[in-house]
Give the backbone structure.
Amino acid sequence: MERATFSKYSWIDFAFSVIGVCTFLVDWGSDVWVATELYCRGDVVWFGVLVGLMVLSSVVVQTFSWFWFKYDRELPGFRNHTVGASVFFRDRVKLSCVLHVLQLGFLCRHISAIRQGFRVWWRKEEGSEYAVYLTHDLSMLRLIETFSESAPQLTLMIYVMLQTNKARTFQFVSIAASTTSIAWMVVDYHRSLRSFLPDKAKQGWCSSLIYFLWNLLLIAPRVAALALFASVLSGYMAAHSLMLWSVFTMWAWWQETNFMDSVAGEWLYRATVGLIWYFSWFNVAEGQTRSRSVIYHSFITIDGMILLTTWWCYRDPVQTESYALALLIALPLIYLLGLLFKALYYCCFHPKLWRPPVRDPGLPVDQPDAEVSFRDVSIQDGDLSSQLLNRRMAGHAARFYTKKGFVRNSDGTNGAESSRL
């Protein structure tokens, strides 16, 4: 059984934190600029949609951040790791609540992560585990922010360009900022997943490149198909989004997700997963991963073909003559190429971390099996129980890299999911 040795905080982690906050600020600044331009040009409807997306995304991200702050405070021993480490939160409940209400919680998490990372990396102080813990939370929050704002905003800007048949500077800036945000999220999220691998199973940058290309080639045609459909039947776009989001949310409920520590938080998570699935696949539960992925991609492929066919039938032949046929052919091919890259990743680059364990004949029949290669982080392990483990990211890593998830404790519960410490 391979024992866990937690990843130490490095200068690369610090660089990712700095780039992450810079990306956040640039994305936020571009949103304000685009909203101002739309309002000044009299495009009140598009201005309202953009501001609505910004507010909705911010509220969702701040709510997740607040839930996690409350959950972590209740963990035994968590405060011992964070004494003097956090700039804003620590044990200041009222201050944290005010910052989240003012929509500053996400930004404050960035600043706390940079400060803690600087103390660990540059000053060589203690607190490496907490610094890594913060970066994992930020990675999850960026994922949520990307699919609740950047992806919808990218769809909106492409739609505006198609409707006006013009490409203004602020539109290019918005598209570039949203694309950069999505691309950075993919790279950062994969890096967080990789941090839970044993040293001998660490992946090279080639695997990250394939992972990046697969996600980019699947998300791009999806966003384009949605924008094309909206350009001809904008009145039906809200109905399409609401219907699919409802179906995806109920599918997440049916899979019995257990990501959050409260009922309200779990339903928020399922609703957010439904939004993510509107654009991209995201595994949220153990078991039958391949079959769920096949069902999802088959559904999205059919939906995408319906969207493209609808656009082709209702488009303006004269206005779209220069690019219509090329898009109709290219988008399905790009999506197919993305599926091929995904298959290539799982065949050639995905670590084979799970193997059926050999059962000791002397063990009882109902003795839980143990995973043999993923990081064994059991709460019963004395020397590891005092170390910080970000259960939120660890859970996603377990579902991504293994077939069954984490090691099980003697009581039958998932060791890494039964405690974050």
